[in-house]
Design a protein that fits this description.
The complex is a heterodimer of chains A (530) and B (144).
Chain A (H helix, E strand, L loop, with lengths): L5 H57 L2 H12 L4 E8 L3 E3 L9 E7 L7 E9 L1 H50 L19 H42 L4 E6 L4 E4 L1 H9 L19 H13 L4 E6 L9 E10 L5 E9 L1 H15 L9 H13 L4 E9 L1 H8 L1 H17 L6 E6 L2 E7 L3 H16 L2 E3 L4 E3 L2 E9 L6 H19 L7 E3 H10 L3
Parallel strand pairs in A: 15-16
Antiparallel strand pairs in A: 1-2, 1-4, 3-4, 5-6, 5-9, 7-8, 8-9, 10-12, 10-15, 11-12, 13-14
Chain B lengths: L1 H22 L2 E6 L9 H8 L13 E5 L4 H11 L3 H12 L8 E3 L2 H10 L3 E6 L7 E6 L3
Classes of the chains: A alpha+beta (530), B alpha/beta (144).
Chain lengths: 530, 144
């Protein structure tokens, strides 16, 4: 049995109480018994006195020693009397061990014939030991009875406790052990406890079980819902076309989807656990990434930046990177990084850019793009020479051989011109058969050289493939310098144009003339030589 | 003659006794020559109940009693100690075992009793008042 079980505890308490109460009651009982025995003793002695008083009176009256001795001996033959004595005026008769003390009882003896005449005193001493013995005996009996009573009460209490309380509780406990929470199993109420506290306890336990069952059912439903949701999330995440990566503040990858894996495969990179902060190692322009992130995070926004991925292949891969700061429940900074493939869009844009800035036929910069370049140069205050060139004799070829032949010739001219230029130089088709050449940081001498080269290249005859006919063109070129001749761009172009027309004009006179400088033309005008 | 007078006296006495029983007081008498003039009730009890065997003047005393349950005796003890004669007898019976001997002299009737007192100087006895003679001295009167 359990050491701190109810039955043992109850038994200990009852036995302990019984012993204490027993001791106290026994002591009290002993006191009361002793006192009552003392009173009884006194009464007995009074009765004894009544019995012996006539004889004692006679003995005292007559001072009769023998009679007095008879009385004294008779008295001490009683258990209750220790010693006795009779005293008169002239006589003292006492038992052997007589000694006067406080507890000695005194009875006056009167003359048998004159009730008012005192003739002696009878002394009787009560036997206290005898009384104590008697009280002891009674008390012992009482103590025994109390002990037996306590024993019976203890045994009955233990039995009642065991059968009425402990065993039903143990049975309930056993039943509880075998019950699986969340099922419809319930505990049976003990037959003898339909309306008792234990019955109530059973009901409460069953209520609790019912609640648990309900809750578990609810949780089951919830769990399945969560599972469905989770699988959907997983599907969403795994099948997303964008690469989605979750990294921690150290750049360690916590989670990534298949699209990200495909990106890595495409880049011919090994799948690593860490590509640096914000996956920086994957991008060519790390600085851009960090700069964007810094600004966006300072404004509590997600950073969105278009970056090119490091690739060991020819194909360029551009992605839009969106970095979002996520705070975990335990206040750790994590980053969600999504990579949208924008390579196609980039390509289209560059194609559009091409279309907008280049001439469809010659693939040279168009006029608009050239103007933009000029603007940039003037903005940057970079000195340059602007050559305005116009083909001579192009219109007749176009008219005679058709536009296709014209186009073919234009393409040929373009390629010839390109061959004679440096990498830093710019060639653009200004419109029709007009070209603009920009030579940054070029001196007059250099310009003359370049123009001579251009002229000689153009003058070589060109074989029109569809017409089995060789044609050749010449060009007129007008040059103006920025900023020496003009600071204003429009004026600069106009002055170059003017110089070019000046050349065309002179051509009728001097067929070898092909180049004129704005400054020369201006001087001519000023000098009025023409 | 003497016998005749005695007989007459007895007859008279007998006659008298009948009336004595009704209301005639009893008296305690001693010899005329006894120096004791008067006795207290206590002294009387002490003498008759055997406590003392002498008069207060230390002269030896001889109580004179009547035999058996004489009417005068019954009346005397009734008057003196307020006890029936049976209890007085019981008292004496008890004392007999102690070895105490009674000093009393027993007489069959009051005539003998009176005669004994007249003859003995130490004698003391009780008689009806009417029987008092000149040779007797009254020392105590009961039921006055």
């Amino acid at each position: 049995m359990n050491k701190s079980g109810l039955v043992i505890r109850l038994a200990v308490v009852i036995v302990f109480t019984a012993v204490i109460v027993g001791l106290i009651t026994t002591q009290l009982f002993y006191r009361f018994t002793f006192i009552s025995e003392q009173n009884l003793g006194k009464q007995s002695i009074k009765q004894l006195y009544n019995t012996v008083s006539p004889t004692a009176s006679i003995a005292s009256y007559l001072n009769e020693k023998e009679l007095a001795e008879e009385v004294v001996n008779g008295l001490i033959s009683n258990d209750i009397v220790t010693s006795a004595a009779i005293q008169t005026d002239t006589l003292l008769v006492e038992s052997k061990n007589y000694k006067k003390s406080i507890s000695t009882l005194e009875f006056d003896l009167f003359s048998p014939f004159q009730k008012e005449k005192k003739v002696g005193v009878l002394f009787v001493k009560i036997n206290d030991n005898y009384l104590a013995d008697k009280a002891d005996k009674i008390s012992t009996t009482n103590a025994f009875v109390v002990a037996v009573e306590a024993l019976i009460i203890t045994v009955i209490s233990i039995l009642v406790t065991y059968y009425v309380i402990t065993r039903p509780i143990l049975n309930i406990g056993k039943a509880l052990h075998s019950i699986i929470p969340g099922t419809s199993q319930r505990i049976n109420k003990p037959a003898s406890h339909q309306k008792s506290e234990i019955g109530q306890l059973t009901e409460d336990v069953n209520d609790l079980l019912a609640k648990a069952e309900q809750q578990m059912l609810r949780e089951k439903v919830l769990r399945s819902e969560v599972q469905v949701l989770e699988s959907r999330f997983r599907m969403l995440f795994e099948n997303a076309t964008s690469g989605i990566v979750l990294v921690d503040s150290q750049g360690d990858i916590l989670l990534y989807n298949e699209s990200f894996e495909r990106f890595i495969e495409k880049l011919n990179l090994p799948l690593k656990k860490n590509y640096g902060n914000y996956l920086q190692d994957l991008f060519i322009m790390k600085k851009d990434l960090h700069e964007h992130i810094r600004i966006a995070f300072a404004n509590n926004e997600s950073a969105a930046v278009e970056l090119e991925l490091i690739s060991y292949q020819d194909e360029k891969i551009w992605v839009q990177v969106v970095v979002t700061l996520l705070m975990t429940d335990d206040f750790q900074e994590n980053y969600q990084i999504t990579l949208h493939d924008i390579s196609k869009r980039k390509q289209q844009i560059s194609l559009l850019d091409q279309k907008a800035n280049y001439d469809g036929l010659t693939n040279l910069l168009n006029r608009q793009a050239a103007e933009q370049k000029l603007n940039q140069l003037t903005h940057a205050r970079i000195p340059f020479a602007l050559i305005m060139m116009d083909l001579n004799d192009f219109k007749p070829i176009n008219d005679i051989y058709g536009h296709d032949a014209g186009d073919e010739l234009l393409i040929h001219v373009s390629s010839q011109l390109l061959k004679s230029l440096r990498a830093a130089d710019l060639l653009s088709r200004w419109g029709g058969d007009e070209f603009v050449i920009i030579l940054p940081n070029a001196s007059r001498k250099e310009v003359i050289n370049v123009c001579a080269k251009l002229s000689s290249k153009l003058s070589k005859p060109y074989h029109l493939s569809q017409h089995e006919k060789s044609v050749s063109v010449t060009a007129s070129m007008g040059v103006s310098f920025y900023p020496d001749n003009q600071v204003e761009l429009l004026e600069l172009i106009r002055s170059a144009d003017k110089a070019m027309y000046q050349v065309k004009k002179e051509k009728s006179v001097n067929s070898n003339k092909y180049l004129a400088f704005t400054s020369d033309v201006a001087n001519l005008n000023n000098d009025s030589k023409w | 003659m003497t016998k005749l007078t005695q007989a007459i006296t007895i007859l008279l006495l007998m006659h008298c006794i009948g009336s004595v029983q009704a209301n005639e007081p009893l008296v305690v008498v001693v010899n005329k020559a006894n120096p004791v003039a008067e006795l207290s009730r206590s002294e009387l009890i002490d003498l008759f109940m055997g406590k003392y065997v002498a008069f207060p003047n230390d002269d030896m005393a001889i109580p004179v009693e009547l035999n058996g349950n004489h009417k005068i005796k019954v009346e005397f003890y009734q008057e003196l100690v307020g006890m029936p004669l049976s209890r007085v007898n019981a008292y004496w019976s008890r004392l007999r075992f102690t070895g105490r001997k009674r000093a009393a002299v027993f007489k069959a009737n009051e005539i003998d009793l009176i005669a004994f007192i007249i003859a003995n100087k130490q004698a003391i006895g009780y008689v009806p008042q009417s029987l008092i003679t000149e040779d007797l001295k009254v020392v105590y009167i009961l039921n006055e």
